Amino acid sequence: GENFEQTPLRRTFKSKVLARYPENVEWNPFDQDAVGMLCMPKGLAFKTQADSREPQFHSFIITREDGSRTFGFSLTFFEEVTSKQICSAMQTLYHMHNAEYDILHTPPTNDKDSCSGAGDCNGTSVSKLQRFNSYDISRDTLYVSKCICLITPMSFMKACKKVLEQLHQAVTSPQPPPLPLESYIYNILYEVPLPPAGRSLKFSGVYGPIICQRPSTSELPLFDFPVKEVFELLGVENVVQLFTCALLEFQILLYSQ
Questions:
Q1: CA distances (Å), 247 to each of 33, 251, 255, in order?
Q2: Rounded to an integer, what distance in angstroms lies between the CA atom of residue 228 and that of residue 255?
């Protein structure tokens, strides 16, 4: 159902969960479709060496029918595609796209008024523009998005972001971490407890300490997100308007990609 006039590198592809650990958690049954969709809401993306490939972090909430919540934290990054079959498939998609585009946009040969010369025709120039952002298997390196995700019972955003960033750094660093990667994952899942209400907890990550803070029952609920980002995304005027609407008890709808 996607717009196939988009070049193959601008399309998105269906993602799936490659692995999860542990296999089963009694209090938190794993919903593969929901987690996959929330980790990669736009699906798999492909890029080449010419595109920006900085890791991106986002969070999400899974709310069940009984009203219980679990919190997800996702770090999406790009890995080089090593499969020759996938690279060949991307090349084939581009051949098909360019052929279809030429058929749809090439003007009639007897329409002399539409082009003053071979290079001046609008259809040809657009077609060249489409081909400029293309993929050549002999020249380009293909990358595909991949995601690591941590699902938790509470919204420890800063701590989870650090955990994921340090795990990703350990995978991509030329020097291996002091201990096997599995030992850090096991430590986070089984040995680091939830901090007691009103207390902080400090534990060791792959490359440095990580701190969790949990408010007491007499304090406001945990909001572990930087307010600075709200102002960066919405601007001062919009934040003031939102705050005014909240004080006046208006209904507020935020729409975003």
A1: 38, 11, 20
A2: 19
**Cβ–Cβ < 8 Å for 153, 26:** no
Q: Counting beta carbons within 10 angstroms of the beta carbon of residue 185, is it exposed (0 to 12), middle (13 to 18) or buried (19 or more)?
A: middle
Neighbours of 125 (CB within 10 A): 11
Token reading at 224: 């572990």
- Residue 237 three-state SS: helix
Say how far apart CA 21 and CA 183 lie, in whole Å: 13
Q: Give the type of residue at 97.
A: H
Of 73, 100, 55, 93, nearest in space to 155 by CA: 73
| 150/176 Cα distance (integer angstroms) | 22
pLDDT digits (tens, 9 = 90+) for 46-60: 998 888 889 999 999
Q: Where are the domains of the chain?
A: 1-104+133-153
Cβ contacts of residue 146 below 8 Å, gap of 6+?
Answer: 76, 77, 78, 79
pLDDT of 49-88, one tens digit each?
A: 888 889 999 999 998 888 888 899 999 999 999 999 999 9
